Amino acid sequence: MYRIGVIGDPDSVLGFKALGLDVCPVEEVEQARQAIHRMAKENYAILYLTEQLAAQLSAEIARYKDALTPAIILIPGKEGSLGIGMANVKSAVERAVGADIL
Amino acid sequence: MPSTTINPTRMELTRLKGRLKTAQRGHKLLKDKRDELMKQFMDVVRENRALRRRVEEGLMKAHGSFTVAAALMSPEMLQQSLLYPKQSVELEMSFQNMMSVDVPRYQFRTTSQDPGEIYPYGFAQTSGELDDAVDAMAKVFQDMLKLAEIEKTSQLLAEEIEKTRRRVNALEYVKIPEMQENIKYITMKLDENERANTIRLMKVKDMLRKEAIQERREEDARVMEAWSESAQAPGTV
Fold this sequence. Notes:
Order of helices and strands of chain A: EHEHEHHEH
Oligomer: heterodimer
CATH architecture of chain B: Orthogonal Bundle
CATH class of chain B: Mainly Alpha
Distance between the termini of chain B: 83 Å
């Protein structure tokens, strides 16, 4: 049994609560950092993280990138998409191929 | 230039030839693996991009609905209506082996099957916009799960491809040329030794022959002397 976590500012993540996901509303980056580490240790398979926070947590995201769990997936927050999620897809291609071929 | 530590011996040569063969086979296999991984990776990435775009759009729509709902309801009311979710999600994770990379596959189950059950609040005190927002959220959630699966897969594949690519390149541009160089060095050295040996033998034979000729000459001279002495003797007598 695995769980799904959502980390982000309270306004952005409120809606996920209705779906029955484990929501962790955070106000500051530091709280988010701790939440990621705590959830990674528990059996969370997927962590959704708002891009607004992800922009300042790249080290944490990189750390769990090659691990099987948790999958940290960036989602746009309330303020809209920052394009970080898309950029990550691009960087994965660059990492694999050596150049951005898409 | 071959490294200085190799021994130019026949045993080393055999060992190196064996290693070169293994390396070449490994290189071929790894190259095939890289190509196949790349092929699958491209498919995954294409899907990833499309899915991400869809999820981002869907989420923005849901966020928009939420903003409207939040504007129509008091924050406390909104909090309260969403505080206790009616359904919970159970996630099962299995692994699929994709070209020796374990990638996750998620199966999720909601506690209630009824799609009308997602609203965790009574309709009396909440606005209709909140229903829309929750509905939009629930719709995009399927895609979000799929996105998690695909994105993780692409990340794991990217890592594996990077590793494989490095190995292929290391074998192709460093290891195999180095071994070929060493093999060449040993063969040359052994040939050189062979030639040196032949020459040495020839020289020795030459020396022996010279000695023999010398001896023969000395003996001839002795015989001649003895003969001339004996030839003179009768004359004197």
